[in-house]
Amino acid sequence: MKREEIVIPAADIARQRDFQEKIKAMFAARQAHPAACVETFGCQQNVADGQRLMGMLEACGFTFTEEAREADLVLLNTCAIREHAEQRVFGNLGILTHSKRENPEQVIVLCGCMAQEERVARRVRESYRHVDLVFGPQALWRFPELLWQVYETKKRVFSVADEHGGIAEGLPVVRERGVKAWVSVMYGCNNFCSYCIVPYVRGRERSRDPRAVMEEVRQLVEAGYKDITLLGQNVNSYGNDLEGGFHFPELLEEIDRIPGDYWIRFMSSHPKDATPRLFDVMANCPHVAKQLHLPFQSGNNRVLGEMNRRYTREKYLELIRYARSVMPELVLTSDVIIGFPGETEAEAMDTVSLVEEVGFDALFTFLYSPRPGTRAAELPDPASREDKQRWFDRLLEVQNGHSARIHAGYVGKTVRVLADGESGDEAFPLSSRTEGNRLVRLKGDKELIGRFLDVRITGSNTWALYGEPV
Asked: 180-402 maps to which CATH number?
């Protein structure tokens, strides 16, 4: 598609503001004060989407509650990556029959990646008739218009057509209070990994205008946010659809020039598009955190081929060696799938051996979860669940031991952290993060939240460090 067909015209965004005003006026005429309950599942991209959905609801006159029974509107912003998340959503939809029965005027909304799947939309249409509005990620910017249709027609509305997807600038947003913020730099995915549903539900890759991204980051820094994460299904592909050779490393360099005391992170990266140029920029930009989340998924080349990952074990190790050569202090994390269809025990152990060779600081580990509509879901899968669990347990044993040893090496050292919230731990009441995104639980008063601090590490375990301000 042409670039001008991807960017949503400003007039269409303005039309959505008109619908926001109509909904707000409707409630004002009733002398009503509507409340919305918004629950977001899944990745940080979903979190960013949820904040824009809340922004549009606020513009429609809604306040917010965490109790579905108190809400005039309940919105579930869903994830389609794993079966467990899907079952949780259907369970929540079932529970909402009770609040709908108590308040027949309550509007129930299902949106996000899961809603975009045809089989899910069909199931909701047929079996969850109390759900009023269903739409996918590509229709998010039209939420006020779709919601107005529900109120005006008193009928159910479904907007789940298979679309390429667009870029909508200027949507309102309600961000969490604190020091962390999420900025989407691109949407969609062109990779079609054989196990992943994302390209089918979020459309093709499309990059935001760099000027819009930089302005959003600038406003966040000026508003006091200090830990900002740039988001994309594959941020390394940023700029492939833009003219002028402006790609993700160039975007990082431009953002780094914004004055202020803050960290920039990004996720997720794809190894096939990660380059020495990216790592050089990370090393040379003081605001860019020396932290890299680079999913490798499998340490076996045959399995990587079946996954359609388009790199090899050797290529991945080469990338890691270079990244560490220019950033010796780099904190490295990754995603791993165990039990991909057809994977043997020896191939799973290749993944374990890669983990041992690299020495990751932390891993996000998953037993393979088949997603209907993907190629991997149709592959033969002779290994038993028990065997896969045994391989998975071995992976966890290796990684947890390594994480514990890394953390133990911090005891007695002084590190710089950003205090970002309360921990719920009586002895160490504050939560903080290092530049490498390590969790550090702190002693201290909550007045320290939002400040960069030097902290002496006094203890550790597999998942966290413990310390006190110097």
From this structure: 3.80.30.20
